[in-house]
Fold this protein.
Amino acid sequence: FWRAGNIAPGFRHADVLPKTTENAVAFIQEHAASGPFFLYVPLSAPHTPWLPADDFRETSGAGYYGDFVAQVDHAVGNILQAIDDLDRETLLIFTSDNGAHWPVNDRTTFGHDANGPWRGQKADIWEGGHRVPFLVRWPGHAEPGSTSDQLVSLTDLMATFATLLGSDLPHASAEDSYDFLSVLTGTGTGSRDAMIQHSHSGMFAVRQNSWKLILGRGSGGFTYPRNITPEPGEPIGQLYDLSADPAEERNVYLDHPAIVDSLTALLEGYQSAGRSRR
């Protein structure tokens, strides 16, 4: 499951997730009597190597991957308990940097869709590669059980935290970060209306409101076929209306040339400017 190469003496891959969790809990406990703190916890699971601890083996019904996810759930529970012990208005965000690595054969083998209804998986240009959970708990500020359809990117965290801290974000910093604090508090809709996406093999997509344009055919990632060479008269790209077709099953590229042109110009404008935030 892992690449060959040098390794530090005493290092064990299986220890990474438990040790990360232990250190996160210790950090929180150490700040119990101090002022505000910021903690970023980059959980190693469920990335490869899939090494769930013995207590989690064969508990998920979804193989090693599912068992490792179950261990992540346990780790997050320990971190949450440490936060609860502080009795503070702590903002907690749980998210992921990409969709699950869950090939089509895994859906058949385990009867489970790790990416829910979204097409594709990690590395793909489709929604299964980019649309990820974004769970927020913020007592006194974010309404429990509420949801939002607002378009948000992980790049937006910096601008949002800057607003939360009352800091001005320089124009040349975090060029693709938009403040969405008002979305978290339920007092506004944020300022992002478009987003650039990029697949493992370099295929670009741009989304604006419900429209998503992909500059190429195929997944651009792990799902077969990665690339499709269109026949004469076939669309050279993909266009989906995610409000009517969230599973990206109906390519309407040829039906809406004006939208294709508009989104292509938007993407090229961002690329030329080297930034998307105005």
